[in-house]
Fold this protein.
Amino acid sequence: MNKVKFFSVAFLALGYTAFAQDVESAKKAIDAEQYEKAKSILKGIVKNTPDNGKAAFLLGNVYLKQSVQDSAKMVFQKGITAKDGGVFNYIGLGQIDLDNGNAQGAQFNFDQATAGMKKKDIEQFVYIGQAYTNSSKPNYKKAIEVLNKAKAVNLNDAATLLALGDAFAADNNNNEAYASYRNSFDANNAFVRAKMQQGVLLKKSKAFNEAKNALEEIAKTNPSYGPVYRELAETYFGWSTFDKANSVAFKKKALENYEKYMSLTDYSVSSKLRQLDFLYVTKEFDALEKETAELKKSANPDPKVYLFSGYVAYEKGKYQEAIADLEKYISNPAAKAFPRPFMYLGFAQQKLAIKPGAKETDKPVVDQTLFATSLENFKKASTLDKYQIGELSDNGKALFEKKLYAETAAVIEVALLNPDSKNKLYDNFFLGYSLYFNNVEKSPKDMNVVELQKADKAFENVATASPTTQDAHLYRARVNSLLTEPTAKEQMAKSYEEFTKVVTTKGPETIEKNKGKMIEAYNELARYFGKADKVKAMDFVSKALLLDPADADALTLQKALK
């Protein structure tokens, strides 16, 4: 009986050792971004040893890395019941709460995970810190706070220092991040990622040559470590955008390294989805089109496939296809909501809404319903992130050049939904400019008073922010000349006078360049003051004739004022 008991205990110990080795293998696969391999190992452990809560937690975390929240939640909820390490699954549920904006729920779950910790335990703190860093709604300060608790227990724990490095880097504290990564690798040189992240920080600071050297050294000593080739790819691509002389060669190196990275992962759907990002950023649209077409053939393609398929269709001028794919992405409940898809969708709709006229010289024909839909999508983008609509400024200018003045104004009004835009001055000017030209050739009864009032306000904004922008005063005067109210005429005169003062202050060269506009201003001022102050009116006429003694309008006014 004793022998049977001894062999049973020994066999059990061997079983636990084997499973522990499998967990370590899974961790290495996760670190190498071989997620399908990691899932296969962890699913086997969870199936064969349901009481291994740590394996369940790691499996759920892989699902989170792949943005499959529902599967992650199911694994975590089941893993909580495990006798060995089940509490770690509360951390996974806490990260899901963070992702969903439920900070209170996250804190409750983190408290559950740490409730039974012993004084020397730190692993829960490390994973909680990672949850705060890796969440789609991160809190880096909180991550650092929690990780410092682990560091207080063990100053030289490599995992803690690596997680701290990630949190500091995400919080843009590069000095602390670099020190943490260096100390992590010094504490345990098996932590290749800590060494790699030092090179990543060099890339982040645009020290591309130094980053390349550091990463290539890691690749030389760890040739099978896939992530280092991805970082090399991103380094070479970043470098190609700064070094125009070597741009083509560096971009080629970027693509070679990314292919090497893919060969060292498992060519899983998740790794292919990440590759789509890289192909898009590097503008490899032919390859991107090929990959998305292949991924679309699966039974239930990931929403990102339609996102990138829509992007590449737009870039290749296939606007109807772009609209169809982007609408599939946006309407998918599992798709992440962010501004870019709405911007692309709006631009694709705009491309189809504006058709060339019958003749090359004709004004384009606009499908107003489809154009209005494009504006709604731009507005949706602005509600998600007002800083992502900056390119609407250039879009508005392009429409203005086509003499689509009403459409220009509509687009610029969306651009101005970002009050902090660096293009704010420019946008206000073009808003006023387009609304003025949309009305100047109309008969008085057809003019849109509301549009002209908007134009007046837009030019006022420019003149207030930049008083020396002479054309803001000129066009404000012209806008008010189209309005009939006495206050508008008064503003017209003020703006014309301000225009002449600004131009005169800038000197003879500026006066000469703006001679026609100056004569216009003096004549309009003479006309305005003609009845109330003939002396002042005659002074303006004299100034106009000084610039051009033969100006017919000034000569007529002079004769009328005598």
